[in-house]
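Sample entry was shown:

___
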Amino acid sequence: MTTTTGRLYQSLIPLRGTGRTDLGAWPVVGGLVAIAAVFGSLNEHFLSAENLTNLALQMAATGTISLGVIMVILLGEIDLSAGSVSGLCAVVMTILSVRHGWNPVAAVGVALGCAALIGLLHGWMFTRLRMPSFVVTLAGLIGWQGLMLYLLGRGGTINLPFEGFLAGLSDTWLPPWAGWLLAGAIVGGWSAGSLVQRRLRRAADLPVGSGLGLALRLGGLAAVLAVAVAVLSADRGVPLLLVIFGTLVVVLDLMLRHTVFGRHMYAVGGNAEAARRAGISIVRVRTIAFMASAALAAFGGILAASRLAAVNQSSGGSDTLLMAIAAAVIGGTSLFGGRGRAYAALLGILVIQSITNGMLLLSVDSSVRYMVTAAVLAVAVAIDSLARPGRPR
């Protein structure tokens, strides 16, 4: 191995023996348990089936936007335009569907296509013009919000019909048998995938984890899903919004961990120069990441519009962007790039929405809620800074 190749290899893998440990999702899981215990003891309604169902509905839209933000953060960059893009594309979809009578599915497709073009523009400005991602997306935050306000006009609000495809996205509930069938399919699919992966690793003479650890993870997953289905079925059932969000999480996680493009994402985020020397097209990876971020932001905005049955001047505004970024970071995605999983959006948005929901039940002032969320975010970043693997000098 030549000196250059050796340095390249070392830069693509974390160093051993640095004295730092990746804690993974355990701090977040522990935080969720603590949040449930605290708010459950202060208000008996917090852990009720009705409130937990509302919590599942509340987190789907922002969680979807957070999934897109993760795509850019994995590269060590930031997307500040996600909130504005979500609002703009929701408005485009609503105008086409309500004012021009388009088929709702076609309107959604056009809105997602517009988002992809916006992401392509952001990626081009970042990769070709070499503008910092912060500046590119900050300009997008302001510009796309202005375009959204222009499209809304003086009225400022467009209502969606309470029936049909768009309304059904947020007002459809799985019957109990379908919820249990879905949970069983998830556990079965995850088990089959784990067994296949273990077999492939053995065939390649790679280390394989213990069977006991796999069994414990399977048991934990089955228990969590069983509790979730039982609680949600005790109210209205498993909401379709949660199923859509969960599907996006699983698909994106599989893409990041088991495809060539996903591994290229981690490589570019970990060390862009080493990835370039290894033959990875950094421009292509970064451009696709910005396009995916915009498309997921748009879909999150569409889910939010479906749930509220309207779009208005505050669509995609308020604290939507901040909560999406905070969810990604709190869930375990490293702001330094190169480390994180799609499940970070699910865990992070659970933490944020649980805090928000619990404080609303306790009638706590919004100022306190913002301060608590900020403290949780600061702790998450501190843990990431202390636990991330060391870098070669």
